[in-house]
Amino acid sequence: MHMKATRRLSLWALATALVLIGTRALAADANSVKLDYMNFCARCHGPSGRGDGPSAAALNPRPRNFTDCATMKQIPDDRLFKAIKFGGASVGLSGSMPGWATAFDDNEIKELVAFIRGFCK
Questions:
Q1: Into how many domains does the chain fold?
Q2: What's the CATH number where 73 sits?
Q3: pTM score > 0.85 for this model?
């Protein structure tokens, strides 16, 4: 094969591989944030965000229902971020909600905020 054709083919293969890797990375990120939510949040907030997780019945006040769109629209992202990072008491909510500053970095918390926003359609 001619050198230019080989180089073009190699560049095309590299570009295709990068696109596939990027697509997989985005899918992995989406799966990762869902897994984080299921592992750390769903116990109280429920798998569908309704505040009805298996631990919710024992909590007073009950965990936030993320599907209550009227209420969720009134809560700014930075308040959700702070509640996740430092716990409910940091934003005047229940001290039963722990902070997750040691479990998640700031980008992961931002992804959780976006994921939680997804419960309101």
A1: 1
A2: 1.10.760.10
A3: no
